[in-house]
Amino acid sequence: MIEPNESEILLDIAVLGEQVDQFLKSDIGYYLMGQADAEEAAGISELRKVDCANAEEVRMAQFRAWRGGQIKLWLQNAVMAGLKAKMILEDRED
To answer: Which among 41, 46, 75, 94 could disulfide-bond with 61, CB atoms 3.0 to 4.6 Å apart, if both were Cys?
Structure first.
């Protein structure tokens, strides 16, 4: 099996980052980020109201807030990794 070289990996990461960035700028991307924001906010709001003695309700509210934040983080990390890979590739060309 042929192992991809570092430049190929960086190029793949850069392309993926650009694809995710373009996705986030689309109507579907805006919608999903809005949903993730709303999910995170709802979880935080629930945490403010939930009975602290009810461990299951606390856990569910925490998970809801975490899930919304994680979805955003995964997408943002993909874009950032792509930008970093692109910068590394551009520096190598100089």
So the answer is: 46
Q: What is the pTM of this model?
A: 0.78
Tell me which residue of 4, 8, 6, 20 sits closest to 83, measured CA to CA: 20
For residue range 22-74, what is the model confidence (pLDDT) as tens digits? 999 999 999 999 999 999 999 999 999 999 999 999 999 999 999 999 999 99
Minimal CA–CA distance to 8: which of 79, 94, 92?
92
The token duo for 40 is: 């995170």
- Angle at the Cα of 28 (from 74 to 25), degrees rounded to 5? 70
Give 73-78's long-range contacts (Cβ < 8 A, gap of 24+): 75/20, 75/23, 75/24, 75/33, 78/16, 78/17, 78/20
Give CA separation, 59 vs 46, 48, 53, 72, 76, in Å.
10, 13, 11, 20, 25
